[in-house]
Amino acid sequence: MDGARNPSGRLEAQFAFLNEADRLKSVLRATTLVDGSRAENSGEHSWHLALYALVLADQAAPGVDINRVIRMLLIHDLVEIDVGDVPIHSANGLAHGSVETVVAEQRAADRIFGLLPNDLRDDLRVLWEEFEAAQTPDAVFAKSLDRVQPVMANLMSGGGTWTTYNVTADQLESRVGAKIARGAPALWDWVKARSAAFFD
Hints:
By secondary structure, the protein is mostly helical. The chain is built from 10 helices and 2 strands. The protein has helices at residues 7-21, 42-55, 66-75, 80-83, 99-113, 118-133, 137-156, 160-164, 169-183, 185-199; strands at residues 28-32, 39-41. The longest helix is centred in the C-terminal third of the chain and has 20 residues, at 137-156. Pfam families: HD_3. Keywords: Hydrolase, Metal-binding.
């Protein structure tokens, strides 16, 4: 869409996307707030992760662009508007990382990013794909933060989803710890030491 020739049409597309993104606030996650009072929603999760990136930037590997990480984290869960939250430890419904989940999320990305003007659609879709692939230093660090934030919520709320899904120490290590350690090893050491008591 040519914004210079059709500024009104461009704004309509931008606001259509922003209004659709508001629906992320209605997607409830398995993870609770740190006080355990209620489930967090995916909009809150995305904001909190962006803040994690800002505050924990010193844990990133050399060369990681924290501004790009923040941008990734702000958009990484937009597909949940269509797909919903797929908890990493849940055995019900869609499985985290399954072919069905990946296909559903790709379809959601087509629809949601497709609301934007073409230039923004392409920029944000590429950024989302980069996060999903978790191969670049920026995406690896972003993915680490995406795993560590629910761990902190579970620690602070007395077990949270670990209790709900009967998570074992081995499951935490394999499903969560490896991803955190890949992009932020000191963070994994810190939360692993604090989670050990829960699994004793």
